[in-house]
Amino acid sequence: MRDDDLRDRSLSGRRAEAGYGNGKRRNPRFHQPDYRIADAMGFVAREFETATRAALEAHQFARLRELLEHIWTHNLFYRKKYAAAGIGSLADLLHIARSAESVRGLPVTTKPELLADQAAHPPFGTNMTCSPLQLVRQHQTSGTTGRPLKVWETRESWDWMTRLWLGQFRALDVTPADTVFMAFNFGHGLGLWNALDAAMELGALTLTGGGLSSLQRVESITSNRATVLVSTPSYALRLAEVADENRIDIRSSAVRLIVVAGEPGASIPGTRARIEDQWGARLYDSPGATEVGHFGMACPSYGVHAIEGEFYIEMLDPQTLRPVVPGTPGEIVVTNFGRPFAPVIRYRTGDVAKAVYDACECGRTLLRFDGGIMGRSDDMFVVRGVNVFPSAIEAIVREFEEVVEFAAEVFEERGMSGLRIRIEVSPVSAGGADDLVARIKDAFHRRLFLKTEVEVVSRQALPRFDGKAKRVTRAPGPATRP
Ligand SMILES: [Zn+2]
Q1: How far apart are CA 217 and CA 397, in angstroms?
Q2: CATH of 381-474 given 1.20.1730.10, 3.30.300.30, 3.40.50.620, 3.90.1740.10
Q3: How would residue 12 be classed by pLDDT, with cut points 50, 70 and 90?
Q4: How far, in Å, from the CA of 93 to the mean position of ligand 1?
Q5: Which of 41, 140, 228, 329 is deepest in the core (most CB within 10 A)?
Q6: Is the full-model pTM beyond 0.85?
């Protein structure tokens, strides 16, 4: 089959795509749950959430094979990719997709590949099997590490992800009685748009804080008695700081629950403690990524799970692409089932975490990212052969309550990694700044064997962040990357 034939088939609407992923499955293992309804334990999909690993995998591989059948017929991007990997027939493809071990015979998918495809075949690229008429939303990645990748949604895929957020809210006991304040910029990113739709579908009252200053957001949260805040962890810190500067007691606000996404902050103990203390609320981490969808779910026991009924998750060594031992850091590689018209199959997210598979206190058997997402493999640097993430630096700095804000720069000097940290300190501790500096240096030396320069800067000298923060950067000069 020529490429033109495939392309023509893929975009001229030869098959009604709307039904795919929305009903008639040939190999249903579990029924599609109604995410609007939770049981007394907060489970919306108990069958998935408490399944044995064998049952989960059977379900995942049935869905994967169904997806691959569709791809083989309609998706030019994956058809070419798999042909280049020597997969010559649908039978071969399905044979590979039968177990966790055999599926590693499929090549991984990377962001640069998808970007190159979109650049060569603008705007949609060839990883698109529905008619553009069926698309209802377009988003894109932030582009902080290069050109942004465009991602589209059909009505069905949008509803799919909204259901996942519904499950998230239900698990954390958000109810129609709640008022949910969404503090993000409502821009091109996927961000928390689905969280908004999910909160509405749940019947909660929603407030959208786009286009407001931080102070206006704080005032809206308090005057409207919002009970749930959805933001990034950096921004939850920022809002608390603005409240403090304006003598607004945010701790006595009605906010009881903060759900964050986009950064590791909620899983860094010092950061979590600080946000929970400032707000007098519980903080939960619900990770996702624009390219794959909202694959994570926080549970009431502070576990960060993967929604394995809707995603197939692998934990791989970023260098060898071999599976890592459970409980050790690995890159999260995701296959999503809810965007079959433009799926990602074995997609390298760049996020690193430690996956564990024992049952969580909450009762879920879904894999758990122990300690949440550690960071991005791109951001990792190596100190004396040890991988260090910016989150590890933040974890140490946040142990010092006197530090209000910080910025750190990793540098290399005579083959040794070092760290320059600038800190803003609270007024009460300004007198003991020298002592604080010495204690911070000592902590970095003991814990990370890092030579650290610490400088106290004036209040408000360092950047604040509305979305994802970039507090740890790399100094120009010799590379320290792995
Ligand atoms: Zn749990």
Answers
A1: 27
A2: 3.30.300.30
A3: very low
A4: 34
A5: 228
A6: no
